[in-house]
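cron nightly-structures :: item 1 of 1
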Amino acid sequence: MRARDQFHVGIVTTDVEATTAALSATLGYEWGRLIDSTVEVSGPRGPGEFALRCVFSIGEPRLEVVRAIPGTLWEPAPGVGIHHIGYFSDDLAGDMDGLVEHGWQVEATREMSDGSLFFAFLANPAGFRVELVDRRAEPGLRTCWAPMT
């Protein structure tokens, strides 16, 4: 993992629209398309499907605002409210293994259609969380923060 691969900060909220409106009004953020999607992830309790709603900021530093899903890893973080920092990875399995060797725990993973990992969420004992995303997904993700026309 390298600092230059960091591409967003994730914020989990119970109200995506109110949160993005506040960030727009106070900090001038503009937003890409709203994503409403059912995602299948695997975690310590096994696989599950979740209705994910999120939106990325167009400008940088890039933010991802995600609707909270009670009882999952997508719950608002205590304290400052930053949920995770997202990194692109050229070797997702290797980066995961490196974090696990340092005491991090895998919270959830999602596979691509070819069976390789698309993303993984990992947390350390202090509660810090990262999302690793396979770099091959970068072109598709870029559409999430492209200006809407």
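cron nightly-structures :: done
The chain has a mean pLDDT of 87.
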